[in-house]
## 1
Amino acid sequence: MGELKDKAKGLANEAAGNAKQAAGKAAGRPDVTAEGAAQERKGEAQNLKGKVKGALGDKV
């Protein structure tokens, strides 16, 4: 996967995770809130992976 794909997937996961966290808090569902937090962290990792690929020229 290329740099831009990783960054795009990361941003999508971060946004989805934030939405899940908000929905979980609004519904009083800590399980959904935790799932959203995990998805947000996954997105942050994907975004970082894309940045590293960009710095190293997709050799990772």
## 2
Amino acid sequence: MQRLLIVLGVLLIAAGLLWPWLAKLPWGRLPGDFSVEREGFSFHFPLMSSLVVSVVVSLLLWWWRR
């Protein structure tokens, strides 16, 4: 558990330092992400982005457990 928390902390620090470049990635604007904007209302549902993140995290966890 300690190693997991340290790794997560390092990843969060790295993401914070790399944020100017990470913000330019098309996450949330991939084909399959839904965005509805009307007067006084906006709804964003990043379906494809969520699926991509889920697959990557699943593969990383599978690789780590091996």
